[in-house]
Every structure is written in C-alpha cells, then in structure tokens.
Specification:
The structure is a single chain. The protein is an alpha/beta fold. Strands 1, 2, 3, 4, 5, 12 and 13 form a 7-stranded mixed beta sheet that branches. About 35% of the residues lie in helices and about 20% in strands. Helix 2 crosses helix 3. The chain binds NADP nicotinamide-adenine-dinucleotide phosphate. NADP nicotinamide-adenine-dinucleotide phosphate binds next to helix 1, helix 2, helix 3 and helix 10.
Length: about 325
C-alpha cells in the first residue's frame, strides 16, 4: 500500500479485503510481480499515470485465475495469465477485465512471464508501431541494460538491425553484449557525445530514448535524415518540491523538439506511454498478438535480473533506483 510519497520504506505491507470480480472480470492469485521504474516514480510522487493515494501500486503480475465474474467462461479458472493494470499488482490477488488477462508463455518460467508484458510491449510499441522499424535501420537504445532496454535490444536484433546500445555503466553494457551483437557506449563516460558519433558515424535511423537530458540531446543530434526518435521515458529527471533548482533541472532536461528544427534535419520525435492504450482494448490486443508471435518465432526471452520475496519489495525498489539493476526485477508472492 502507498499512503504517502517517499523512499522505498513508504511501501507498506498491509491486509486489504480480497477483491470480488464484477461482471466480465477475473480475480487472479498472483504468483510473481514485475517491478517497473514507473512504480519507483509513483512512489516518489513523480508519475502522472497514478491514481490518488492511498492505493496498492503495481502494474503487472502473473498468476492463476481463481474466480470469474458473470459472463466469463468458467473454463478460464486455473489458467496462468499475465495481468496488466494501472495499479493493484503489488498484492496476492488482483482483479481485472477478463479480456486483459492474457495467456502466459508455456515455455517461460513464472519469473520470465512476470518480466515480459510491460517491457516488451513498450519496446515493441516504440520501435515497431511508432518508429516502423526496418531491418536496415541503425538503432540506438538508451538504458539498454534495463527491463525495456534488454527487450528492445532483442527485438531490434531479431529484425537484423545494427544496434548502438547505451547505458550508464560498462559492466551493464557487457551484459547487453551477451544478448546480441551491439556496439556499446557508456553515457556517463567523458565525451559521451563524441563516443556516440564514433559509434554511429553515419547517424542513427531509430532511437528508443528513456533517459532525457544530455542523453536525449546527444541522440537527437545523431539522428540521420528521416530518423525517428521515440521518447518512452525520462529516468534521469528528478525533482523535489522543496528544491526549486531541481525544478529548473527537470525543465531543462525534459525532452523537447521545435518543429522548425525537425524540418531542417528531416527527423521526427515521437512519444508513447502504453498505459494510455489500456482502454483501447482492440488495438492493444492486436499489438499483443503480433508481439507474442514475434517473440515465439525468434525465441526471445525476458532477462530476469533479480528475484525478491514479497516482504523485500522495497529492496527491489532500492536496487532499481541505484541504477545497478540489469533486466527486470521480479517479486515472488509465495
Ligand atoms: N512509455 C511507456 O509506456 C513506458 C513503459 C515502461 C517503462 N517506461 C520507461 O522506460 C524506462 C525504463 O523502465 P524500466 O522499468 O525498464 O527500468 P530500467 O531500465 O530497468 O531501470 C531504469 C534505468 O534507467 C537508467 N537511469 C538513467 N538515469 C537514471 C537516474 N537518474 N536514476 C535512476 N535510473 C536512471 C538506469 O540505467 P543506466 O544506469 O544504464 O542509465 C536504470 O537502470 C523508464 O524511464 C520508464 O519510465 C516507459
């Protein structure tokens, strides 16, 4: 439960009433939860797509259908499903529309299933639906060792694209090189933008950008004509109410682009947030079916970078915030 904003300690383990399914809904007994950077931001009070507190955070989980509401096929009872929700997944029971409880992957572990949905969907929507990725595109990916990043690297590699993977740590970049053939650039090293120029001398055609600030600006400057940069996050932005300097930094580092400058460079800046797609079920399920078919065809697998007990969920937040995590952090409820 999240009653107030603050550090990981504000995540409170508490008893709440079991959810009851309404018509068209299912209740899922959660086996594992996927932790997202967006939940770190929500906990800090920096996330727009969060409900009013108090609420149970958590956007994705995998578990077993335990109850069905009226109008839902009872044959669904006992099935393992992936659940994507705005909030409520940091729990041992979650309720959601039956149509959004999606079949799990039989050949993935429970943890891998918990790690798949948000990260792969975000990477796919950004690269394929928005940037219209082609095999000849030179692709840049920021926070490439993270949950979204490792998904994006695998998707772009399966398309056959040359990839420049960027992250803030050499050890993390070494882990990305185990996933696919990539050129790597550490954006916390001196002369990041010179190193990016050297890694992509003819520019980048597509960039998936989730950091903001100098990383965003350097990637934008490296876009080749007809290039598309998709903003899907700004993990580097932080501010606190009591520190006006931090507001100014957040303003300075927010990704922006003037249309006239885009025209001169013949590039496009796009942005996406998959949360807002949740009510558009038809579009969402269409994209999901293309993504899951592609995942199976190319044998992609989410990278699980750590598994925590439910009681240690604040530790998973702490680790993610430390920037040391690789891939997806998963929390087991049992
Ligand atoms: N648009 C959408 O629908 C959508 C959906 C899911 C996620 N996202 C966004 O995608 C990004 C990645 O999400 P994720 O859940 O996969 O997390 P993640 O990449 O596993 O973890 C966040 C990463 O962000 C990087 N980072 C850069 N500056 C940071 C800072 N000041 N503090 C902390 N981390 C910083 C770190 O990697 P380095 O140290 O390598 O820089 C860190 O490991 C986030 O910005 C998230 O908000 C967007």
């Amino acid at each position: 439960m999240l009653r107030r904003t603050g550090g990981p300690h504000v995540l409170e383990l508490t008893d709440v009433a079991d959810p009851v399914p309404e018509a068209g809904e299912v209740v899922v007994r959660v086996e594992a939860i996927g932790v997202n950077y967006a939940e770190v931001l929500s906990r800090k009070g920096l996330y727009g797509w969060a409900p009013a507190r108090p609420y149970v955070p958590g956007m994705e989980a995998v578990g077993i259908v335990e109850e069905v509401g009226s109008g839902v096929d009872p044959d669904r009872l006992g099935a393992r499903v992936l659940c994507g929700v705005q909030y409520g997944a940091y729990a041992d029971r979650v309720v959601l529309p039956a149509s959004r409880a999606l079949p799990s992957f039989d050949d993935f572990s429970v943890e891998e299933n918990a790690a798949f949905g948000v990260n792969f969907m975000t990477a796919w929507v950004a690269l394929v639906e928005m940037a219209r990725l082609r095999s000849t595109d030179r692709v840049g990916i920021t926070a490439a060792a993270g949950g979204v990043g490792t998904a994006a690297v695998q998707i772009a590699a399966a398309f056959g694209c040359p990839i420049v993977a960027m992250a803030g740590d050499d050890g993390k970049l070494a882990r990305v090189r185990e996933l696919a053939e990539v050129t790597t650039v550490n954006y916390r090293s001196p002369d990041f933008s010179g190193r990016l120029d050297a890694a992509a001398p003819e520019g980048l055609d597509v960039v998936l950008e989730v950091v903001g600030g100098e990383v965003y600006r350097a990637c934008l400057a490296r876009l080749a004509p007809f290039g598309r940069l998709v903003v899907a996050g700004y993990a580097g932005l932080d501010y606190t109410l009591w520190n006006p300097l931090s507001w100014w930094r957040a303003w300075r580092d927010a990704p922006r682009m003037r249309t006239m400058d885009a025209a001169v460079a013949s590039v496009g800046v796009l942005a996406t947030h998959i949360g807002y797609l949740l009510p558009d079920e038809e579009r969402l399920l269409g994209v999901w079916s293309k993504l899951t078919a592609f995942t199976r065809e190319h044998g992609l697998r989410p990278v699980v970078g750590g598994v925590y007990d439910f009681a240690d969920l604040p530790e998973a937040h702490r680790f993610m915030e430390s920037r040391a995590s690789v891939g997806k952090l998963v929390v087991r409820t049992a």
